[in-house]
Structures are given as C-alpha cells and as structure tokens.
C-alpha cells in the first residue's frame, strides 16, 4: 500500500490517520451529491473505508477511535452527510469537513465550563503530522491486497480474523490473479495442509477436472462438499470455474455447528463477486501449453437509469487439448447477478450460474508390480476416449433487512442442479490372472502374465440436485457491560442424487505395450445394469454468541441441533433391488476463547464436535450388507495469530488434535457387490486421530513485496479398527488395517512458498516478478500384496512475471506464468487401487501432475 504525506494542519488532539482516499472526483459541496451505496454491517473501520471509496472522498480517522465498534448496514441512495451520520450513529463520534473533499472523524466533545482550569483556549491548538494511507475496499476490483481483514466462514458474522478463535485462511483475488488460478486445486495450495485429489482427470493444464470425485483433504479427512457464499455444493463442485470468485475462505476444523453435515477437517467456502455501485469492466485472455485458451469478462455497475438496481456479469470460455491421451476440455460459464436496493435498510439479490463442460475423461491408472508403480509416460492412458458432458445450473434468491442499528435478518433460497452424461466411460482394474475371465471369450496372451482389465460403462448418467433455504437473525446488544453479537438461525437441505449406467463390454489391454482399442472378451452384461437413487433431508437449528469480555478477551460459543433422514435405493444386474434407510440426530457444540491484548497479536483455543451420516455399505455376504453407523468427531485446537504493518501481513500458527470415528473407505475386493456394482462396498475404520502443527503466513512485507508461506505436519493414524475388517483383508495376500497405520492418501508434510515484487517507481514502475515452490511428502494407498502402495514426494517450482501500464482510466497488464519449471514427473494424488481377486496384486488410481506448463495472459480493466 502506498503512503502519502500531505500538509499538516491543526486539530484538538494528535490524530494518526488510518484512511485517506486520494481521488477527489466529485465536489463534496455539490448541490446533489446523493448516490447509491451498498455497505454491509461490518466493523466501523471497514465500513468507513468502503464508504470513502464509494463516495470518492478523503476520510481521516484514528483507528483507536473505531476499535471494537460495528456499523449498521448502509443501502440506498443518500448524500454523503446522510451516509456518515448513519454509519456513526451511536458511536459517540462525529465528523467535520476541512476541505471540499476531506472529512475528519473525531469524538463528540462536550463543551467545558469557562471556570474549568483544564478547558483549553480555542486559539491554542497543537500542530500534528498526519499520515495519509489508502486502504482499499476488500471488494474493490482494483484491490491488490494479499490479506483481507475479515471472513464470514467461521462465524457467519463477518468478524475480523484476528478476533476469531478459529483457524480461518482467506485467498484473495489478487493471489488468484498473480498465480492465474483456474481451479480450486490451483488456489488451495496457498493454505497449509490442504491437498486436492481427483478420480477422473481431463489432463488439461493445472489438472483441470471433469465431472468426477474432486476431493479436498483438510487435516487428514477428504470431502467432496464445498460452499458457495455459505450454500452447500456437492459432487463435482471442485471443478467449478473461478471467473466470478471474489475470494476463497478455508475454515479448518469441525464446522457442523453452523453448516451441518460436513467433514470435520474443515470446509472451503467460495465467495462470489457482487454488484458494485461504481461501473467497472474487465477482459482477460489467457493462452498457454496444450492448446489451452481461456477468455473471461467481468462487468458491473448500476443499471442505466436505475441507481437502485446494480448488476454484475461474469463470463468465461476455456478450451484445452490436455497433456494426456484421449483427454480435453471445452467449458462455458456465465454468472449474472442483480441487486435491488429497496431502501437504505432492505435489499434483495437474484443470482444465476450456468456451466457447460464437455470433457474427454481419463481414468488415471498405473499398475503396481513388485512393490512399485510401473514407469510409464505421463501422457499414457489405458482407457479409451471417454466423452462426457456436465451441465450445472444454480439459482439463488436472497434478501436482507436491517431493523435498526443492532438487529438484522437474512434469508436465502438456493437451488443447484448438476447433470452428467457419458457415452463411454472406462473403469479400469488390474489382473495378474487374465485366464479367470476365459469363460467370457478369447483371452489374449500377455507379457509377464499381466493385463489391464477394463469395463466400459456405456450411457452413464447422473443427476445431483441440492435445494436449500436458511434464515439468520443477527443482533448486537450489551449486558452488564459485555458486548454480544448473537446469531440465531436455521437451515434445511434436500439432496437428491440419481445414477444409472450400462456395463456392456469387458476388455483387456497390455500394460507394457498398450494397443488401443484393446481386446474385447465379453459383450453386453445387460441394459441399465446399475441404478441408484439417494435422498438426504437435513434439518438444523443453531445458536451462536460472540462476547467481548474485559481484559481484551473474546468468547465464542454455540451449538446446533441436527436431524438427518437418508434413503438409498439401488438396483444392479446381480440384485433386483436394495434399500438402505437411516435417521439420525445429534447436538454438536463449539466453544472458543481468544485473548487480544495488543492489536498485533491474539492467542486462541477452541473445542468443537461434529456429526455426520455415512453413505458406505459393508459387505456381509452375497446379497447381505449393512450401512456403516454415523460418524462423529471431536477436536481441540490452540494457536497464535499476529498482524503487522497495519494488518497487511498476517501469520497463524496452530496445533490441532482431531479424532473421527467410523470412517468409510473403499473395499478393494472387486468381487464384493453391495447392490451398486463391483467395488461399491465400503469398510469402516474404527477411529482415526489426526494431529499436528500448521503455519500460514501471507501479506505485504515491504511496499510492493507480497509473500505466502505455508507448512503443515499432519499425523493421521488409525487408532482403532473394527473387527469386521479382518474378514475382508487377508494379511497373507492383501495386507491389513492395523492400529498405528497411516491413513490413506494423507501426506505427512506439505509446504509452499510464493512471493512477488512490484517496482514502485522509476523506469521499472509497473513491472512485477516472482515465483514459488510447492512441496509434498509421499502418500500411501490401499494395502496390497507388498504392503501399502506408496508414491514418492515431490517439489515443483513456479515462476511469474507481469507488466502493467495505464492509459487514462484503462489499465493493461501482460503476464506470464510457468509452472513445474523443471518439468518434474510426479503424482499429485493417489486413491488406493483395485485388488486382483486371485493374486492380490493391484493397480493404483494415481493422477499425474501436469508437466512444465506455460500460461500467458493480457488483461484490460477500466
């Protein structure tokens, strides 16, 4: 951030200015300076910052005056004077004008009696030096901050992160721009201990994913659930475009108290770009390796002739051939938003998203022979071309009303529908005994007796629908000198999932010398051989209170009542029909305490519990299976947060101890069928304990120098096993699940470093360069003949450069990113494997990381 000093002037007290907006576009004394403002109920400091940006004025105030104060919501068309009066109402602060466009916020001073000896003379005012520092609005499209002061994911109340007794990390839009992040997987490497794995891959640069299970692993536990502005998104959401993303929030640890059914490791919440009162337009064209082209556009402002109607429109189109055989991507995304400022206290918004993806999917697979993965080229695919189409529709209506300065209400209704269709999706297994399939037809000879067994899933169709509504009431009040922020809310989710496919071909291909399209050894196995219908109803009520105690202590406590109804019906070629139904309810608490003795440091601790239903089914014998019991989790966490340079640099060091019970993991026996086809059964691990330290550092070290550093050491260990596991794992052939074993697909150590520097003056002004490194320790997969399958660790290097130039109000930026500069061959994730029923040897679902990748862009903003 740039600091500018201007002429000192006389005031009645020493004033250290926290804010000064330096673009006097409009005269504050004009006869009609009213305009539409959109400012949520946030801390008073942030509200004044946003107001000064939107009003185009210089607003000067001492940050000590606004500490621990909140502002009411500001919506509607009003004048500058009206807006300042509303924001400062009840704060014991006032304002005065010292120039046409300069305002000073100061305490209300009561006049003293003439006989008071301490009453100063009006003619003797001390001279002070005022420092003018510009603080951007967090949602300003030109905001270049790497750190954002507030987050909503942890408390739903837009609380300053330094005052939140939870580990919350935020990835700002400037980080996404500098790294040219296209997917969530690209962005989440900036948060400690987060890894991303995929079961299907388009092979596009940066591992752009098709419709598939895109899992994030947080604190040792994987999840397919994401949130968009607090709204739950299910399978496939990890492949969403980032064209309309404002920032990405990562909340670590159990979050069931506010969000219900989520994994205890944490959650990812994407915050989207919202309409702005000031017109803004941007266009970005990206181009790079593997025929990767991506165009994005962003436009916002008032609807012509209607200052109370604001719009925003984001669009993107991407096409790529992919770095692996038979892969590719063609993606169209559009997201319009319309906000109606009904009154200064009431607003309503309508949002829509449409995403059409046409992909060539790759089923990542690598044979695991003699204790190691086969050395194959990154471009190799053992499947055939698998075209797939995914269409996602999202609609949302939300409105809010500010009753007064202290109480407000928010309501949202959202619908998300995702349709997926594939005409030829190949599922892959591995066999060292191809002759057991000779009954199907002619079995070709193979080298060393190994073959890749492939099953063609024709006419695959799935639909995932999510319906949601939630209501939140937020209030600010005092009791016995304690300041409360109370949140009372309820939500309801209905999730409908449907799936159907045909399994009409079984074929073999040689792993050492694959010749496509392989050799068919079995024809059609039946029409619509697998159908699954699942419905989940989730009801929740929650209460949370944030209390500011004496001695700079902050207490947060709350609980949630959760009731879940779940019903799954499946029909396969082997079983006529199966039905699994479960009803569960629970109360989950969360408490946290934070000590904030200085504005640059806070120490916190929290305890939280979570509860969740399991969808896994355990095989008990032919036609016999039972659902896995609900899971539960408990966590204790403590940490230290620091902020330096007026909050521009933040660091969080945390240690957590998290225990989860009844974890469903895939049953690797391909002959077990739980009414959903081969490999549809699960096993339950009795208990897993995940613990370790995490470190996150992000922000501006010096003017123009921004950096991000992360490190996590996650020890996810099996502490209890279920007795039934022994019937599925024969230690002599397939390994076993034992107490003390590491949990699958969880690297022990992960770290990343990224930094950029932008020249501030001289001939190189506007030139920016940087780079970083990502490090990940090896992972393990499902146990096999030679013990757990393992992948080696890796480190990749990235470089970046950009140059920005302004022509009038237009800013043009040219940028180049190079990822995996040293062209390192590595596996980004491993998801176990499928065991051959005779030999016990198996292959791994291992995903190659992208090779050296170039991505350039031209960006225009005005």
Supply database-style keywords.
five-stranded mixed beta sheet; disordered N terminus; 22-stranded antiparallel barrel; 6 helices; mainly beta; 862 residues
Strand content: over 45%
Residues in helices, as a percent range:
under 10%
Rounded radius of gyration (Å): 29 Å
The total of helices stands at 6
Shape descriptor: globular
- Note the gap between the termini: 20 Å
Tell me how many strands there are.
50
Q: So what's the oligomer here?
A: single chain
Low-confidence stretches: 1-32, 112-136, 201-212, 438-442, 724-735
Q: What's the overall average pLDDT, rounded?
A: 81
* Main pleated sheet: 22 strands, antiparallel, barrel
Instruction: Give the structural class.
Output: mainly beta
Structure description:
The protein has 862 residues and is mainly beta. The protein is built from six helices and 50 strands. It is 5% helix and 56% strand. The strands form ten sheets. The chain has a 22-stranded antiparallel beta barrel. It has a five-stranded mixed beta sheet with strand order 10-16-17-14-15. The protein has a four-stranded antiparallel beta sheet with strand order 24-23-49-48, with no helix packed on it. The protein is globular and about 90 Å long. It starts with a strand and ends with a strand.
Describe, in short, the structure shown:
By secondary structure, this protein is mostly beta strands. It is built from six helices and 50 strands. The strands form ten sheets. It has a 22-stranded antiparallel beta barrel. Strands 10-16-17-14-15 form a five-stranded mixed beta sheet. The protein has a four-stranded antiparallel beta sheet with strand order 24-23-49-48, with no helix packed on it.
